[in-house]
């Protein structure tokens, strides 16, 4: 190989890594843009906590139906086609979430939104695993760090525009325009190759180790989903924060996630995956318990910060573990594990709504903290 060929290969690899980071940013921004809209949607269609929880099930159903198919689609058509299609659907559905006038139309929009987010999440993580393998070094935390940057951008920008007096529709139209610009700039460098061999199955049921990793992802994503879908309501209903400022909870959480993940690859290499998974889970559990124990808005925001720091590198560690296993083809394993795990972030918050209705939102958050302790207990087994 000539020097010019080597340089060209390095430049191509760098462009692919940058494009992967951009897609993670889009996913985080698209998902978090929904967080500040939750109180407005609840008021617009006159929903109780239990009714909102029921509607959030449609978001989870859409995602859980689409996710198992994504591994097959990425294997057959390549990550590029799947990622671009999902990104365009997110751009189209977000404005509808801001204006849906009835519970029925909101449910349909949430289902389409969940499906689009779910497909994008699976496809981008398949791409990330392949790019990480090609690089020969840990990159997963960094990729997920750009998801967190997108979370800051989505929740922060929408909250800022609402605070300045823009309508929910105009706020999310700005986000949709940004999504299409980013897709156009990055799509050229996404992976378009088929990911499965001719003798590999297009779909297999998750089993064994992949199921276990999926269960741990469920718990971790449930904690994140509680902040995404219920953090704003917790701040408004329990801590009496104005609705126009309640998106700050998820923004603070995302800032902590960003700092943790952007430094995560170095931290994991220095201290080991087992230590980071153990301490991270314990930190997230402590943050949630602090949020429900102290009746002060500032302390609650600090608690969300702790949850973000604690959870920041736990999920990337699990995705890297799934990429290394040999029980299933990688694209199908990532699809299966993400399907199980994202039930936590998408369908799990609906359970929070029902627990909140029968007991309290504080009780629901406390139960999540207990589940995080189970993740901490599994740290050594995951990273054996």
Describe the structure.
The chain has a single domain (9-195, 206-382), classed as MFS general substrate transporter like domains (Growth Hormone, Chain: A, Up-down Bundle). The chain is 82% helix and 0% strand. The protein has helices at 3-32, 38-44, 49-77, 79-99, 103-135, 140-163, 168-186, 208-238, 248-262, 264-271, 273-293, 297-311, 314-324, 330-358, 361-377, 379-382. The two termini are 38 Å apart. GO terms for molecular function: transmembrane transporter activity. This is MFS transporter. It comes from Winslowiella iniecta.
In terms of topology, how is this protein built?
Blueprint: H1 3-32, H2 38-44, H3 49-77, H4 79-99, H5 103-135, H6 140-163, H7 168-186, H8 208-238, H9 248-262, H10 264-271, H11 273-293, H12 297-311, H13 314-324, H14 330-358, H15 361-377, H16 379-382
Q: What is the helix content?
A: over 70%
Count the domains. 1
The second-level CATH architecture is Up-down Bundle
CATH class: Mainly Alpha
Domain Major facilitator superfamily (MFS) profile: 16-384
GO cellular component, one term: membrane
Transmembrane segments: 18-38, 50-69, 81-98, 104-124, 145-165, 171-191, 203-223, 243-262, 274-293, 299-319, 331-352, 358-382
Subcellular location: Membrane
Q: What keywords describe this structure?
A:
Growth Hormone, Chain: A; 16 helices; globular; 384 residues; mainly alpha
Short description:
Keywords: Membrane, Transmembrane, Transmembrane helix. With 384 residues, this protein is an all-alpha fold.
């Amino acid at each position: 190989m000539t020097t010019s060929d080597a340089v060209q290969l390095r430049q191509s690899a760098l462009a692919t890594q940058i494009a992967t980071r951009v897609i993670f940013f889009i996913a985080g921004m698209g998902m978090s843009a929904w967080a500040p809209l939750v109180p407005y949607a609840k008021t617009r269609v006159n929903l109780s906590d239990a009714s909102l929880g029921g509607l959030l099930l449609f978001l989870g159903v859409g995602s859980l139906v689409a996710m198992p198919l994504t591994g097959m689609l990425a294997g057959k058509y390549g990550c590029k086609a799947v990622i671009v299609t999902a990104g365009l659907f997110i751009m189209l559905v977000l404005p509808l979430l801001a204006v849906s006038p009835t519970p029925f139309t909101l449910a349909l929009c949430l289902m389409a939104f969940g499906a689009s987010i779910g497909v994008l999440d699976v496809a981008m993580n398949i791409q990330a695993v392949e790019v990480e393998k090609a690089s020969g070094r840990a990159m997963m935390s960094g990729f997920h760090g750009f998801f967190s940057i997108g979370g800051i951008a989505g929740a922060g920008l929408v909250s800022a525009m609402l605070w300045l007096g823009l309508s929910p529709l105009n706020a999310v139209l700005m986000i949709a325009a940004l999504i299409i610009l980013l897709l156009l700039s990055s799509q050229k460098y996404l992976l378009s190759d088929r990911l499965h061999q001719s003798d590999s199955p297009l779909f297999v049921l998750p089993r064994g180790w992949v199921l276990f990793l999926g269960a741990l992802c469920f718990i971790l994503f449930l904690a994140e989903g509680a902040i995404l879908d219920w953090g704003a309501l917790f701040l408004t209903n329990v801590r009496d924060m104005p609705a126009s400022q309640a998106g700050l909870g998820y923004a603070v959480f995302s800032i902590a996630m960003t700092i943790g993940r952007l430094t995560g690859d170095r931290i994991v290499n220095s201290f080991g995956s087992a230590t980071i998974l153990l301490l991270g889970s314990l930190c997230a559990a402590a943050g949630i318990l602090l949020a429900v124990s102290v009746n002060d808005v500032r302390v609650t925001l600090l608690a969300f910060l702790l949850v973000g720091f604690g959870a920041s590198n736990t999920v990337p560690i699990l995705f890297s573990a799934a990429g290394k296993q040999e029980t299933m083809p990688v694209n199908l394993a990532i699809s299966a594990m993400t399907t199980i795990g994202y039930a936590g972030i998408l369908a799990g918050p609906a359970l929070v709504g029902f627990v909140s209705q029968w007991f309290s939102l504080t009780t629901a958050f406390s139960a999540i903290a207990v589940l995080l302790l189970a993740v901490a207990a599994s740290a050594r087994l995951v990273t054996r």
